[in-house]
Amino acid sequence: MDKRLHDNMPIYMQIMNNVREAIASGELLPGMRVPSVRDLASEFEVNPNTMQRALNELEREGLLVSERTSGRFVTKNSSLISELKEKLAMEAADRFRKEMTVLGYNDNDIMDFFRKRCDTVLMEDSESERIG
């Protein structure tokens, strides 16, 4: 999980985004216990109240589930996690399209560029697997 925080948005929202990405990527698996507020606050170097706020909001979204005596856990709701993955992917695609448009690419150019880039990365990955 990325622990670097920036000044461009409230800290608790950045933490929420980091946890969302960790859930979507599988770094935090369904049913996995989440470290305590104090442990996470220490890792992120933030006030425990800030961490508590972020985790409470993630609970409200249903991504985290609290069990009274056991702590917090990542939801086991696979459809909610799938929706989260799709939402994050769409946001990334929208950012990519916007940035490419700023560079002067039209939609067809963007698609061509992306296909070529994917092909290049696949070839590079295959080559490194063959050598490694």
Structure commentary:
- It is a single chain.
- The chain is mostly helical and 132 residues long.
- Helix content is 66%, strand content 8%.
- The protein contains five helices and three strands.
- A three-stranded antiparallel beta sheet has the order 1-3-2.
- Strand 2 and strand 3 (71-74) form a beta hairpin.
- Helix 1 packs across helix 4 and helix 2 (37-44) packs across helix 3.
- The longest helix is centred in the last third of the chain and has 25 residues, at 78-102.
- The mean pLDDT is 92.
Shape: elongated
Which residue ranges are poorly predicted, with pLDDT under 50 across at least 5 consecutive positions?
Answer: none
Beta-strand fraction estimate = 5-15%
Mean pLDDT: 92
Query: How many strand segments?
Result: 3
Number of helices: 5
End-to-end CA span? 27 Å
Structural class: mainly alpha
Biggest beta sheet attributes: 3 strands, antiparallel
Helix content: 55-70%
Order of strands in the sheet with most strands: 1-3-2
H-E order: HEHHEEHH
| Rg, nearest Å | 19 Å
Notable traits:
single chain; 132 residues; mainly alpha; three-stranded antiparallel sheet; 66% helix; 8% strand; elongated
Describe, in short, the structure shown.
With 132 residues, this protein is mainly alpha-helical. It has helices at residues 11-25, 37-44, 48-61, 78-102, 107-131; strands spanning 33-34, 64-67, 71-74.
Write the layout of secondary structure elements.
Elements (H helix, E strand, L loop, with lengths): L10 H15 L7 E2 L2 H8 L3 H14 L2 E4 L3 E4 L3 H25 L4 H25 L1
Antiparallel strand pairs: 1-3, 2-3
